[in-house]
Amino acid sequence: MIPLLLLLLLLSVTPCSAQNAAADEITNLPGVTFNTNFKHYSGYLNGNMQGTWKLHYWLVESQGNAATDPLILWLNGGPGCSSVGGMFEELGPFYPERDGNSLYENVFSWNKVANVLFLESPIGVGFSYDTSNTSNVKTDDDTVAYQNYQALIDFFTNVQPAYANRTFYIAGESYSGIYLPTLARVLVQGINNESFPNKNFQGMAIGNGYMNVKYLTNSLVLWSNYHGLIALEDWEKIKTVCCNNQDVDKCDFSAHLNTTDNMNFNSDGSECGYYVYQTLTDQTPPWPANQDPYNFYQDCYDPLPTTSTSSPMINFIKGHPNIAATNPHGTASILWHDSTDSQRGNPCWSEDAVTIYLNKAEVQAALHINSSWQSTVGQWNDCSDPIYNSYTVIYTDTTPFFQHVINNVKTPNFRILVYNGDVDTICDYLGDSWHIRDLAISLNMTSKPRTSWSFRNQIAGYVQRYTANTSVTVDVLTVKGAGHFVPNDRPGPALQMIANFIGNVANYSTATGIIVTPQGPPTSSSTTTAPSGARAANSSFLLVAISAVLLKKLF
Ligand SMILES: *[C@@H]1O[C@H](CO)[C@@H](O)[C@H](O)[C@H]1NC(C)=O
Ligand SMILES: *[C@@H]1O[C@H](CO)[C@@H](O)[C@H](O)[C@H]1NC(C)=O
Ligand SMILES: *[C@@H]1O[C@H](CO)[C@@H](O)[C@H](O)[C@H]1NC(C)=O
Ligand SMILES: *[C@@H]1O[C@H](CO)[C@@H](O)[C@H](O)[C@H]1NC(C)=O
Ligand SMILES: *[C@@H]1O[C@H](CO)[C@@H](O)[C@H](O)[C@H]1NC(C)=O
Ligand SMILES: *[C@@H]1O[C@H](CO)[C@@H](O)[C@H](O)[C@H]1NC(C)=O
Ligand SMILES: *[C@@H]1O[C@H](CO)[C@@H](O)[C@H](O)[C@H]1NC(C)=O
Ligand SMILES: *[C@@H]1O[C@H](CO)[C@@H](O)[C@H](O)[C@H]1NC(C)=O
Ligand SMILES: *[C@@H]1O[C@H](CO)[C@@H](O)[C@H](O)[C@H]1NC(C)=O
């Protein structure tokens, strides 16, 4: 028990941020080529009690009803990757043109239905930094959960108090499979002991999550075999030397791998380890050239077959988003018949385009980036290698966090969504399904049959609902054809999925209320436009893009 006087003293040293929402509003984001019919804010949240850990946030308000729609916190993984990167490359309203100069509209942005808070976490990522030690990059799962929790307190209490009672969800991807359950547990604790300012915590959505290291390793071996990566005779050998010819679905391949960081693996020197490692090197570092582990079916060209301005792909990129206007011959002119790439390269170059855009002085000025960040850190990166390389993974199995949340949360209709693009090899759907199946068994949850769900009358994936005796539901959902970056790979289905999740619509096939009509050109008061000459194709970005996509990050 803390004596009252000490408690008052502690409270009085807690810095009260002088910031307010108005000061953080972005009024003139450079390069926007469409009408932004929503408000957005960029600034800093305190990630510790001392106020020295500054976490950069970007709040993009809803295009629906900003005053009543829920808030979604979004966290990318890494560890060390930026959520603002995820905003530009996946689920936000602004997608960068390839030259990094202008921004076109993502009509499937999640802010169609929600207010989305992108938090660059932990300190050292993106524009977030430790003002007392800008080289502070050493962190771990508990420290990250603490920072995110503190930042949310500052957000609801001081920086955006209009959101103090708003229904909110926490969501993210990849290594956020650890960030989110650890944060959810402290949120439930803080709400139950009445110290957290907003009690309306309503759910958690985890995309291609790193939630169970052993399961993701074991499932990847099976995934690889059944996606044509292993020779028949090697598979027979693996079954013998790894599984003693027992049930291969229950075989613990991970027991034959060594790891020092719980993210990268090597053979333990045994015969099984040798074979399994050979298999996994198709999806884990060192990857073979020209295989994208984040989407098994995504190809990146290095360099593109042609950089001539008559290339259909270049035409597409230049013309986007007004394909019809700049391609008078219609769809046929944008097809690239000899390409194996269904996304016209976007995932291969978007990271570089974002990096160029966010390092422009005029962009940083519009985002209210602190001059002390500019003079000490000075470079925005999508992912921080120093953070990744010095990160300590504490939790290799997140089951206890799920159990705590499910057993203790008091919000009625609390929901969890575990979704997976089904062609990701970094965090595959099978291992994540096993993880939730075991959780359900441990809590004696009931299960409904797995059914398909659809987007525009096509199968979009499969979903299975588990329900706990506390009435908390956990939906395990696949997104057909998406890789690791679901909102980028399957934007329409991803938006429909999240809209139904936050809307508490159990049927994920429902499209009601989702409007994806493009905005018109910017009104003069809302934005500035890019200089018209700024869109020339620039092939020199591509080499960097190819190497960037092969980083080992759990984005
Ligand atoms: C700053 O952070 C770095 C990396 O985490 C650490 O090695 C160093 O000791 C810190 N410096 C101070 C003055 O705390
Ligand atoms: C939040 O709820 C509290 C308690 O009901 C109320 O005092 C406060 O004015 C509300 N804040 C907002 C921003 O609605
Ligand atoms: C309430 O829970 C939060 C989150 O776990 C914790 O940080 C805080 O110390 C707790 N407060 C009290 C008074 O127990
Ligand atoms: C793997 O780890 C085991 C146990 O620590 C050790 O005996 C073995 O030498 C390691 N193998 C390799 C190839 O590093
Ligand atoms: C901005 O930088 C100044 C030092 O120049 C520092 O005192 C202040 O805390 C910083 N504020 C934020 C929000 O980062
Ligand atoms: C719910 O199930 C859990 C795990 O099976 C059990 O510990 C708990 O007592 C049950 N709670 C209720 C209200 O039935
Ligand atoms: C598990 O759930 C079933 C059905 O809800 C119930 O009949 C049974 O008693 C539960 N078992 C335990 C151990 O809680
Ligand atoms: C789910 O919604 C779709 C689209 O509205 C509808 O066709 C389907 O019948 C619904 N399924 C169920 C089980 O209600
Ligand atoms: C292409 O990008 C490079 C690197 O940013 C730059 O140096 C060069 O001037 C650009 N070329 C054109 C034609 O824009």
From TrEMBL:
<dbReference type="Pfam" id="PF00450">
    <property type="entry name" value="Peptidase_S10"/>
</dbReference>
<keyword id="KW-0378">Hydrolase</keyword>
<dbReference type="GO" id="GO:0004185">
    <property type="term" value="F:serine-type carboxypeptidase activity"/>
</dbReference>
<dbReference type="GO" id="GO:0006508">
    <property type="term" value="P:proteolysis"/>
</dbReference>
<dbReference type="InterPro" id="IPR033124">
    <property type="entry name" value="Ser_caboxypep_his_AS"/>
</dbReference>
<dbReference type="GO" id="GO:1904715">
    <property type="term" value="P:negative regulation of chaperone-mediated autophagy"/>
</dbReference>
<dbReference type="InterPro" id="IPR029058">
    <property type="entry name" value="AB_hydrolase_fold"/>
</dbReference>
<comment type="similarity">
    <text>Belongs to the peptidase S10 family.</text>
</comment>
<keyword id="KW-0645">Protease</keyword>
<feature type="signal peptide">
    <location>
        <begin position="1"/>
        <end position="18"/>
    </location>
</feature>
<protein>
    <submittedName>
        <fullName>Carboxypeptidase</fullName>
    </submittedName>
</protein>
<keyword id="KW-0121">Carboxypeptidase</keyword>
<dbReference type="InterPro" id="IPR001563">
    <property type="entry name" value="Peptidase_S10"/>
</dbReference>
<dbReference type="GO" id="GO:0031647">
    <property type="term" value="P:regulation of protein stability"/>
</dbReference>
<keyword id="KW-0732">Signal</keyword>
